[in-house]
Task: inverse folding
């Protein structure tokens, strides 16, 4: 191997305690271009990682090879169980997948049938993303997944149709264009908690600063999932809130107003552009390694605190950490 200093393959390349560092990291692993890398390349990346951790990498391996392998590995393999994930459920496909459903949703917002179909399509995609990126240590049963999927889809459709009917004769066409965003936000508030309900029920693992497991906490699950919901809403907010203004301006042009066939592709491409920028920004708002004060655990989960105290032999850290998920 070329003479390069050995480094921690699994350590982040940028400081994850800063917003800019997190944005750089997520932009690196959620790049939509990674969707076009072949499956064999991803498997080779995992193999090279394994060899490097064992100190058995090929002699011709250099730092560039390792960085590319790290990028592919962290893009495609689940952090809990190292399983290879479906491309359609990865964060690198999120901008494309959401654009393909949000663009038409924002175009055909006047039709009840179209509202139901595109809300169903969007929630089907989001449910698959949530399942792909689930906490592998808190698996859901098929019944729980079905309930989560049906509930989120119903929440999105009820919200969209309810707002559509309520605003139909009361609001301007511009205000009506914001109904899809309200529906998507409402569905996120249902879909994500239900897909991760076992974390609420059984708590999630919490760790000391050195990475040692010290207990479990339901309060940590509440905090982590709440941050994920907020991140997802922020992710789609700019595109879904700016596009109505852009469409109003574009429709003032005769050529655009007449060529209605172009409206859905135009909104899809524009929303896709917004999402490409917003995916790493939204994920970077909150640290992946999230902290929670043990004093809060003591206040709200006295039984868990006693277990933590016993495990730590009375020397309870001020803060414990957990993986909040994406």
Result:
């Amino acid at each position: 191997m070329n003479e390069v200093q050995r480094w921690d393959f699994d350590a982040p390349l940028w400081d994850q305690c800063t917003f800019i560092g997190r944005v750089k990291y997520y932009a690196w692993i959620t790049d939509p271009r990674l969707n076009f890398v072949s499956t064999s390349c991803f498997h080779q990346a995992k193999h090279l990682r394994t060899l490097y951790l064992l100190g058995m990498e090929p002699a011709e391996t250099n730092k560039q090879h390792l960085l590319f392998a790290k990028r592919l590995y962290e893009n495609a393999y689940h952090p809990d169980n190292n399983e290879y994930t479906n491309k359609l459920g990865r964060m690198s496909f999120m901008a494309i997948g959401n654009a393909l459903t949000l663009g038409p949703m924002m175009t055909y917002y006047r039709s009840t049938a179209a509202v139901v179909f595109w809300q169903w399509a969007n929630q089907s995609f989001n449910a698959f993303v949530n399942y792909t990126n689930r906490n592998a240590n808190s698996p859901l049963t098929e019944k729980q997944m079905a309930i989560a999927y049906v509930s989120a889809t119903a929440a999105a459709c009820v919200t969209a149709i309810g707002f559509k009917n309520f605003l139909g004769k009361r609001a301007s066409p511009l205000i009506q264009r914001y109904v899809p965003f309200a529906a998507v936000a409402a569905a996120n508030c249902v879909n994500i908690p239900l897909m991760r309900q076992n974390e609420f029920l059984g708590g999630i693992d919490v760790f000391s600063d050195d990475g040692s497991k010290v207990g479990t906490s339901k309060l940590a699950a509440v905090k982590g999932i709440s941050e994920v919901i907020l991140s997802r809403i922020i992710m789609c907010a700019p595109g879904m809130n700016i596009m109505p203004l852009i469409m109003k301006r574009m429709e003032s042009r005769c050529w655009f107003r007449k060529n209605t066939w172009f409206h859905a592709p135009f909104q899809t491409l524009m929303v896709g552009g917004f999402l490409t920028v917003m995916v790493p920004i939204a994920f970077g708002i909150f640290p992946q390694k999230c902290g929670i004060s043990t004093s809060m655990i003591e206040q709200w989960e006295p039984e868990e605190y006693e277990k933590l105290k016993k495990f730590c032999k009375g020397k309870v850290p001020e803060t414990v950490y957990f993986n909040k998920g994406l």
Summary: The chain has 14 helices and four strands.
